[in-house]
Amino acid sequence: MTEEKNNHNAVAFGRYLRSLRKRRGLSYEILAKRSGLAEDTIRGLERGDCKPDFATLRKLAGGLNMKMSALFTEFELGERERLRELTELLAGRSSRELQFAVKLLRFAFAELEAAREDDEDDEDDTTGS
């Protein structure tokens, strides 16, 4: 269970990192230059494949022009806000509506995962791997 939670946290942090990078209009290349990290490291972090150490997090925060405390606070609050929003959306729904919502979410997540895998395959094709 702990490994599963760690993987979930890595993926969630990766989504958050991608969102931060895009909101700031940064490409992988620009963030890599600003942070002193390799583009592949940033991609791995965004996919949730890498678990960053303290030095990596410090470089990442610097590249995003953020304090480390702000990086973590925004991540934690963002996760709670999304969970709260989902809870509010589901509150007071009938059992049938909840079952439909679960089916819909499972379908959507499967489609997103397939699209992500396609994107990764396309990246591998362009890099010659």
UniProtKB/TrEMBL annotation:
It holds the Pfam family HTH_31. The keyword Hydrolase does not apply. One of its GO terms (cellular component) is cytosol. It comes from the Bacteria. Keywords: DNA-binding. The keyword NAD does not apply. Residues 17-71 form the HTH cro/C1-type domain. GO terms for molecular function: DNA binding; DNA-binding transcription factor activity. SUPFAM superfamilies: lambda repressor-like DNA-binding domains. InterPro entries: Cro/C1-type_HTH, Lambda_DNA-bd_dom_sf, TransReg_Diox_bact_type. PANTHER family: HTH-TYPE TRANSCRIPTIONAL REGULATOR, METHYLPHOSPHONATE SYNTHASE. This is Anaerobic benzoate catabolism transcriptional regulator. It comes from Enhygromyxa salina.
